[in-house]
Structure formats: structure tokens, C-alpha cells
Amino acid sequence: MEVIIRSSREEAEKMTAAMLATAVETKPDCVLGLATGRTMEAVYAELARLHRDKGLDFSQVCTFNLDEYIGLAPDDPNSYRYYMQEKLFDHINIDPQRTYLPDGLSKDIKQEGPHYEAQIRYRGGIDLQLLGIGEDGHIGFNEPLSSFASRTRDVTLTPETIAQNSPMFQRPEDMPRRAFTMGVGTILEARRIVMLVTGAGKARVLAAAVEGPLAAIVPASALQFHQNAVVIVDAAAASELR
Ligand code: F6R
């Protein structure tokens, strides 16, 4: 695992966007794994700008998001499908048929994970997976103590994650308590992983993830296993690294 420290948040965000853009230029039909959350907003804004100003072509790209809330419809402003449309897909020339998220309204909750994994396999597997990290060390919605071998499945969110994400809901009590997420094992199968971590609020958990022991209590520490993982951080997030 390689850790790259940039002096400012903006530089870290730009570098992450540039890595995604290079992946698209190098392999126009690449399969990207995508994340949501506040950290990614500037990355998607930069990709939209690269499409608009430099003609970055997404027409053959395929995307798989990490997660989706159970019970939210695609047109719910709090769903991750809505986030992706608003922040990225509506601003680039991606084919909607090539953008995948777990179905938050799936009728068969236990089948949704295997079904999603079959779709990932059908598209050839993920070339580049973008990740953020939760304040409790989660990746996707793999909460502390998720197995490193876990697959895409339905999970119950922890009180920490509910506290982290519920402010994004107009009525915080409306935040779903369950979600679908790619598993840690699924994420580790991506050919390349880029995790972006910014802000002092993530400094402690970042240090635990990249310098601490491999431990299911910090799901992001699983990236230490990966042969081709890069963690891009700003100086604030790096402040607790040794
Ligand atoms: C969301 C996801 C989460 C976030 C994490 C950080 O798709 O994968 O693991 O990356 O919760 O969220 P922010 O960026 O809002 O701090």
C-alpha cells in the first residue's frame, strides 16, 4: 500500500480525479468502482469539468457503486443513486445502462448481493475502485468487525455511521438503518484501489488503517493486503501518521 500526502485538500482531490481520468483514457471501456459521501463531491466535480472542458469520454465506461440504503427509491434525494446522478452521471456522457448501484428497493434482500456480484463479473470485474473511509474505519458500509472475506450483502449500520451520515438527511431520523454494500472481499478483488482521505477528523482512523495491525475492527486496514492500493491524503488527515 502506497500513501501519498498532498499539502492541501484540493490537491488530494485533484490527484484522485486525475487517477480516475487516466484510467478512463488508458482503457476507455474500464470498469470503475465508485463511492459516495462528502469526500468525493469535489472529485466528481473535477471529472465533470474534465468531461466538459477536455472531452474526457465516459461513453464506454461502466460503474459499480459500493453501496445503497435499503428502502430508498432511486429518486429519493438521500439515495446514493440520486447522489450519483446529481454529482456525476448527469454531467458526463455515460450510458445509464452501464451505471450500477445495488437496488435499494430489491424485493429479495438476500439475493441482491449475489445478483450484484454477478453483474460485476459480467462486466469483467472492477479495474479501479475509489474508496473513502468512515470515521469508524468502514469502507463501503463494511462496519467494524466485517469479515475481510465478506461479499456484497445487506448490513445493519452502526450508531457511529448513523451519527456521521444522518445530518445529510432533511429529517435525520429518516436515515435508513440498513444498507447493501460490496463486501471487503469484493473490494479487495478490484485490480487497483484508490482511497481518498481528507480532513483532520479522519486523522486517527487513517493512522489505524495504514499503520495499525490488520484487524477487522478497522475494515480499511484490509487494504494493506492489496498489491495495488494507493491512499491519497491531505496534510490534515496525515497529521497522526508516524
Ligand atoms: C459511501 C462509502 C462510505 C464513505 C465514508 C466516508 O459510498 O463508501 O464508506 O466513503 O462513509 O464518507 P464521507 O466522505 O462523507 O466522510
Automatic annotation (TrEMBL):
Single GO MF descriptor: glucosamine-6-phosphate deaminase activity
GO biological process, one term: N-acetylglucosamine catabolic process
Active site (UniProt): 67 (proton acceptor), 136 (for ring-opening step), 138 (proton acceptor), 143 (for ring-opening step)
Keyword Phosphoprotein attached: no
Key word Hydrolase present: yes
Sequence intervals crossing the membrane: none
PROSITE patterns associated with the record: GLC_GALNAC_ISOMERASE
Top enzyme category: hydrolase
Keywords, sorted A to Z: Carbohydrate metabolism, Hydrolase
InterPro entries, sorted: Glc/Gal-6P_isomerase (IPR006148), Glucosamine6P_isomerase (IPR004547), Glucosamine6P_isomerase_CS (IPR018321), NagB/RpiA_transferase-like (IPR037171)
Alphabetized CDD domains for the sequence: GlcN6P_deaminase (cd01399)
Glucosamine/galactosamine-6-phosphate isomerase domain: residues covered: 11-229
Highest taxon listed in the record's lineage: Bacteria
SUPFAM superfamilies registered for this protein in UniProt: NagB/RpiA/CoA transferase-like
Pathway where this protein functions: Amino-sugar metabolism; N-acetylneuraminate degradation; D-fructose 6-phosphate from N-acetylneuraminate: step 5/5
Protein task: Catalyzes the reversible isomerization-deamination of glucosamine 6-phosphate (GlcN6P) to form fructose 6-phosphate (Fru6P) and ammonium ion.
Family, per entry: Belongs to the glucosamine/galactosamine-6-phosphate isomerase family. NagB subfamily.
Protein name (database record): Glucosamine-6-phosphate deaminase
The species this protein was found in: Oligosphaera ethanolica
Lineage: Bacteria, Pseudomonadati, Lentisphaerota, Oligosphaeria, Oligosphaerales
This protein's encoding gene: nagB
